[in-house]
Amino acid sequence: MSKVVEIGDGQGYPSTHWSRIVQASLPEQQAGEGALNQLLARYYAPLRAHLEFKFHLAREAAEDLLQGFVVQKVLLRNLLGRSDRARGRFRTFLLNALDNFVKDELRARDCARRRPDGGWIAFEDAPEIPVEGRGGHGGDPFDRTWAMTVLAEAEEETRRFYEAKRRRDTWGVFRDAVLAPVQDGGKRPSDEELAERYGFATARQASNAILTAKRQFGKVLREVVARYAEDPTEVDAELRELRAVLARPG
Predict the structure, then answer these.
(1) Dist. CA 1–CA 159, nearest whole Å
(2) Environment class of residue 211 by beta-carbon count within 10 Å: exposed (0-12), middle (13-18) or buried (19+)?
(3) Helix-strand-coil percent breakdown of the chain, rounded to 5?
(4) What is the pLDDT of residues 33-44, one digit of tens each?
(5) How many CA atoms lie less than 13 Å away from 131 in the CB half-sphere?
């Protein structure tokens, strides 16, 4: 299936601001089209990872089904217009809708493969259709992909902040000491190593730079989440969940 909607790997996946969802449900309007594209881009990576895991799909197959979901459900049937904040998180609504779509698609494909020359087989005689995966050791990557994409957006904005200040040394020690170990599970370099790597006179200076950048990153991360939350209470809840997801084994 050829790609008809550009929903490449996106950024950020906090609890989505409902006013933007309403706007995205009106793609015929100029602002609505932009909101829809942004929404799809931000949800792309977590939903794709979920499909690969739950349904044991290869990357290409997951992307094809995700594209089909966007076209048939989101665009043609205005799925977003049926979302309701009173019924819970938008990302849960979206995930359930995607799962139902994929189950129907896989069942239809399986039935087509098993259709005999004489007609359709009786439903009660059909073997069980294995549409859902049984999971792996690490569990569904949906939440962790959400968390990592939120971090990626905050990381990019923090990097730009320090590059604009011409303090790539501060950005470098923070990235290597704080972000890299979370992202790749590697060992944190010592402050002495970081000082030598980025030209700080002492390990203490490198340590102070890390603390300063931590505060800046925390501010940026909160701003990223706040863009898609309705109120400060929701932001705090999302930040707590983000930390809890990242604390789990990858």
Answers:
(1) 37
(2) exposed
(3) 70, 0, 30
(4) 677 787 787 888
(5) 15
